[in-house]
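So, can you check what follows?
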Amino acid sequence: MAERSVNKGGYRKLTSEERGQLVMQGCSSDNWDQIQVVKNFSTVNIHDSRFTGQIKLGIFTEEVRLFGGVKLTSGIYNSWLNNVTVGDNVLIHNVHSYISNYTIESRAVIHNVNIIAVDGESTFGNGVRVKAINEQGGREIPIYDHLSTHIAYILALYRHRRDLISVIESLVAEYVEYIRSDMGVIKSGATILNCDSIKNVRIGSAARIEGVRKLVNGSINSCYDDPVFIGDGVIMENFIVSSGSRITDGTLISNCFIGQGCLLDKQYSAVESLFFANCQGFHGEACSVFAGPYTVTHHKSTLLIAGIFSFLNAGSGSNQSNHLYKLGPLHQGVIERGVKTTSDSYLLWPSHIGAFSLVMGRHYKNNDTSDFPFSYLIESNDESILVPAINLKSVGTIRDSKKWPVRDVRRDPNLLDHINFNLLSPYTAQKMINGKRILENLKAGGVANNSGYRYNRMLIRADSLDRAIYLYDLAIVKFLGNSLITRLQGRGYDSDEELQKALEKDTPVGAGRWVDLSGLITPLEALEVLFKSVEGGSITSIEEINAMLTNIHRNYYSYEWTWSFEMLREYSGLDMSVICSEELIEFIEKWRSAVLEIDRYLYEDARKEFSLLKMTGFGVDGTEWERHLDFESVRGEFETNPMVKSIEDHIKAKDALGEEMLSMLRGVKSKVTEE
């Protein structure tokens, strides 16, 4: 819906008749000459109100419907306005104190509020420096309306690139100055009901603000495509809230950026923190947190502190601490994408937890599992035990990767964060390759004792080590095969030369190290191009930085193939530039075997969810047979479970795909042989 202008054809002064009518309707002004109105203005729906300073008024003819079916005609009733421009068909009703220094656009509704005011110049939360990741500072991020998780990541974690940080911060500062104003705005279609104090706050289109206690120095960047809701008992100061977010039920926010599609509810408390796309926080608290996309915490007594997270599921009572210091709370933690923490888990900072891992128990040592994605970190008798790669067998890991795209609630056409949902990528594959190498070196060193192998203050049991080497190899082959088949699929080939042509790289970028830029998976080499462009002055706006990040995201699969091209040679001994159909056939068969092996693990893991043990608590008053019936009526049957069906379908699809590729390659081999 387009916003309507507050002034269609210019303003005029009130006529003497209009002044008299307003006085008869209980209105007053210190200076009637400072009130301007539109050409077809009518006094009919303005009653018992006071006007001071510069006032501009539209027309008020449309009916407004409030909750419960209560209807009022737009207009100004029982209110005091000071230096306010009011657009067409706005309803302002029962302002107990005053509204000062605001432009209120068409069809906004303000009912039963105490004070809405701007005092002096304000940047409305823009430019507030949030001390994320490290409580003592040093990684401060200046928030602004269009902050993305990727730019925040760069600002926080590339502080050693001083010129880069200086330029980006100067560009943000320019935007902050552009926003600076002594007038606030309540945009078209916004609704403000039963609120106490709103000071120095910009409010976007279609925002709904109900029952808040206090909003101070912030921006609510709502839009018609994806409105923002701020609800009962909320207190926020020094904040920016992005489109589609919902904050309610006594939530407390101080010095925070809230990204698109976030949900903070049930007395959640956050200070000096950043929350990006689709984060959720209930009951618990956050302090100096960088919450990348899909960071989720739903439980009381759960504390996230001084760390960077993404795709996190924090269990009840999960917490971290940085109390092991003498010079202040300078320690911090990194929990990579896809980690789960169990109930009452604890991590002592500094620690670094690898992607898609599970943390169980209380860990009083500084752990680093960054080279071991898909692992368990378990505590037993104060010992941190690492079980590498075991999550590759977990159906829960696959379920998580499938649920995230479905749970993307963002509806704003202008998305701030680029999110790559891939479970296997060069980012995780490079870590698995490195982790496998570490495990092989540990085994070759022959330092195992009765307990197992020691690595970075953690224990790896011998059977866990052997299994991890095997599982990592399966997953690496699976990823490389996926990338290879994607490259070949959908085309016909008559010769090895045609195969080699199809397998040529699109770009030289991507062969080196990869990083997860808080949701955006990218080669570091591509980032380096961006960084040098910023440092060298060829990029002169935040919009240009965002455009380059968008381009990096779009080119993911070209970059991925460059990495796979090189890694197929290094890891599997296959040189794509001289590859022949016979070598490809051998590797595709190996890939199909790896994929089906992993799927069988997942299938058996899913079956465990339907075991007799998992039926405990079902059929409480009946026999064992009734327990089965009760379980099936609630959870369904194993064979019809959607996740089980998806695994079965995946097995069939990959088996068929493998056979299709092998058939195509055998045809090429046959043609080459004939020649």
Residues 1-6 have pLDDT under 50 and may be disordered.
